[in-house]
Amino acid sequence: MENNQPSSFFIQTFGCQMNERDSETIAGMLAERGFTTAKTKKDADIVILNTCSVRENADKRFFGILGQLKKIKEERPSFVVAVCGCMMQQQHIIDTLKSKYPWVDLVFGTHNIHAFPQLIEGVLAERKKIVDVWEEAGAVVEGLPAKRLYPFKAFVNIMYGCNNFCTYCIVPYTRGRERSRRPEEIISEVEQLVAAGVKEVTLLGQNVNSYGVSSHGSDYCAPKENGMDFAGLIYALNEVDGLERIRFMTSHPKDLSDHLIQAFRDCDKLCKHIHLPVQSGSTNLLKKMNRNYTKEQYLHLIEKLRKAVPDIAITTDIIVGFPGETEEDFSETLDLVQTAQFDSAFTFLYSIRKGTPAANLTDQISESVKHERFNRLVELMNGITAQINKSYEKTVQKVLVEGTSKTDKTTYTGRTDSLKIVNFKGNSALIGEIVEVKITEGKTFSLTGEVIS
Ligand code: 5AD
Ligand code: SF4
User: Fold this and answer.
1) Chain segment 189-235, per-residue pLDDT in tens
2) In CATH, what number does 396-451 get?
3) Angle 278-279-280 (CA atoms, 0-180°, nearest 5)?
């Protein structure tokens, strides 16, 4: 880039792995055009905020950061601000941006990331403001570049969107209907990643269990006979030479097939961990959430998984304080947590997402009741997590070393097959390697160990 041309960018990503993966694509597109990454927003010529609608107070944080960026723009008019991601798929956000933040240079959504190079070109070359958000997704676009965060592990999208419409959730509105990538595209991407040194892939989808089930436009839909469903895809990826670990996120309990449970037994590369959001232990609330399973069906599923794979780690998501949640409903959740013995849980206070059916329910729970229940749930969950982690003591675990600890540069950190964080003393040569670690201590949020290989 010439001196007077913008040449560096900074992307701030909020929310889930889907967004992280999208940011890698945006970074890849900029890197392909000669842009480099800046260390901070202030140092950058272009700042991109990739937003999330799921996390609490996402709007407040987002508009707060925009306020800070406005100051930079006032000092340096050539500074470019682009915003994208799930929040942009909500009309009320676009309206606020247009009325209160008209100085934002580029607004695009989750469905037209592939068009980002043309959009940013329009902004840079013509110095015009662009708002281009597609209401609906087109066909899956393949072959986009990516600047990956890690050389040894990678996220791989296998499908986009969600058809489930859980009544609390905004995702079906911001990410559109389910579209699956073709298996050959996924396998070829994984082969290329492995050739470049990747050992672990995490397959991403809002509900990976319905991979290949629903089609949209020209995207992949498994033929009825011998089609490649999600488990079939895992079997195929298990054959990729040089790949060592396969993970996936996220599974909906209603669609978890026996075929997938079998894959856990047959596929040596498939990590023995499943994230299986339950959301609530009350069948009554599960119905109101439109989850399509009962407490008993969920527990039965866990039983089947543990019978097939005795040492499988199971993690979950739980929402506390969904509208109408009674003390009985909540005690059903505590009971389920106790019975299921989750390895860990992400716990969320229910909060209203504009435009979802649950936002209109009149029996919203008070903040104080929500917090009080939340604390009880976290206490129970932490006790179970600590106990399970303690049972790892004296075992030897295979750990993919990811880097140094944030607080201590001589301590290295990585994850077991079961996704537990392990801290140990090591050296930089171990980063990206899978090493054997003897666990010396199991704590609530991590394990400590010593490298033995
Ligand atoms: N309130 C609280 N938690 C929510 N989640 C999704 N929507 C909401 C909401 N409105 C949680 C669910 C989901 C996780 C990613 O976020 O538990 O599984
Ligand atoms: Fe949201 Fe439910 Fe779809 Fe998950 S399955 S993304 S919670 S609608």
Assistant:
1) 999 999 999 999 999 999 999 998 865 444 677 665 566 899 999 99
2) 2.40.50.140
3) 95
